[in-house]
Design goal:
Keywords: Membrane, Transmembrane, Transmembrane helix. It is built from 3 helices and no strands. The chain is elongated, with a radius of gyration of 15 Å. About 25% of the residues are buried. The longest helix has 24 residues. The protein has one domain. Helix 1 packs antiparallel against helix 2, helix 1 runs parallel beside helix 3 and helix 2 runs antiparallel to helix 3. With about 90 residues, the protein is mainly alpha-helical.
């Protein structure tokens, strides 16, 4: 039984970083709100860091469908959040 080798094992990591950055950023902001602290910008910083990492990995793995999806998703989320912040 021959296993199929994937050319870029980082493409799923890129997509995971893109989506988990949003969830983790929101959870940090909500956790700070529950503790009567303002962690909104900390959550946003985590989101931006995860998005930039996902964009870099998406550029590296852009020949695969998942890599392109990660690149497009994190780019749209990052540009959209910067537009809302400004």
């Amino acid at each position: 039984m021959k296993t199929e080798e994937r050319p870029y094992p980082l493409d799923r990591l890129a997509l995971g970083l893109s989506l988990s950055g949003v969830v983790l950023g929101v959870l940090i902001a909500i956790g700070g709100r529950l503790n009567a602290q303002d962690f909104t910008m900390h959550g946003y910083g985590v989101f931006v860091a995860f998005s930039v990492a996902a964009i870099v990995l998406g550029i590296i793995t852009r020949t695969s469908a998942i890599g392109r999806t990660a690149l497009i998703t994190s780019s749209i989320l990052l540009v959209g959040s910067l537009g809302m912040l400004a």
